[in-house]
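Internal tracking record. Fields below are filled automatically when a chain is submitted to the structure queue. Please do not edit lines marked as system-generated. If the sequence contains nonstandard residues, flag them in the REMARKS field before resubmitting.
Queue: standard
Priority: normal
Entity type: single polypeptide chain
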Amino acid sequence: RPRSHPTSRSFSPAAYPRPASMVLPGVGFIGLGNMGLPMARNLLKAGRRLVVHDLNPAVAAPLTAAGATFASSPAEVASAVTGEGGAVFTMLHSGAAVREVYTGADGLLSACKPQTLLVDCSTVEPATAREMSSAAAAHGCDFLDAPVSGGAPGAASASLTFMVGSDSDAAFAAATPFFTQMGKPPVRCGSVGAGLAVKLANNLALSLQMLATAEAFSLGKAQGVDPHVLAQVMNVSTARCWSSDTYNPVPGILEGVPAARDYEGGFATSLMLKDLRLALDAAAAVGAPTPSAEHARRLYRLSAERGFASRDFGSIYAFLEAARGEPDSISVALAEAWAEEAATAAGESFDSGAFGEEVVAAVAETTAPATATTVKIGQDGKVVAPSA
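SYSTEM-GENERATED OUTPUT FOLLOWS
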């Protein structure tokens, strides 16, 4: 007689218990935002005993409904899952948050058992990772930095790329099964901090790639080109890139991406600005020239100031479209941003009102068409002359 199978129930690991010999080591996950929530869900789907924590307990509801346990603090997570074979993953928004979760009064290390894997997937300063590694080692634990690439779609589909920094071959090997349940086989980039160094370089390139893609589609649309036709050509030509064929910023080109839902639920412009700041700080520390990234940071900052801070960074396309017909408004704002930075670096005060009047006067004197106007700024941050 054929067996009946449950076909209408939603997935729940608790509904299909494994034999004791097959139970996987427990895992904790702290930080259940746009990335952390789907990452944790994939660990649960893989059959892991999952304990989670977030400052907002409500966001854990989908996980607890599927069998996860909610802990009231990072220390409680550590008490529940740490020890040989156990691991805790964190996905947090800043270096300060990472330090608090690991070394705070109720942090992981206050209750972590030796031989635990501690894996931080946040994008923070490489120095923060090295600091946490030293603190973990003092408690007999291994720390790995493992920032990710692939965005919210990659987190949901378990196709993330993990860029891993680890001081231990054994720790990297032990962490790999966890990584492969959330993404592709991990890439070991070097010792602790190397994963973050690679991530910052990657996101620097991504910020420029998205900006160039958005400008190209805005230009095409202004000339009467159907964005679908432009995408069809770009995605099989020399301009092909992830920002166009996988995460296109133009509404209506792709389904399931932030541009299809008014740029909600993706990688916020404010977070891209944070990553650019980290990348530029790292570049300054080692003397690496990054002029394009500096220009991109000003553009994303301007976009954030005009209402797109919480929207996906692909909203830079909407920002450009909003300026259609008056490109000088962006040029003047960028010139002001550059001048303000120059004045601040020189320890001088900056009068935005006076500077704005100076730029407007300079632009008005040019004989070139308004759409070709470029404002020149001297080393002291003052307007020199316009040029076509």
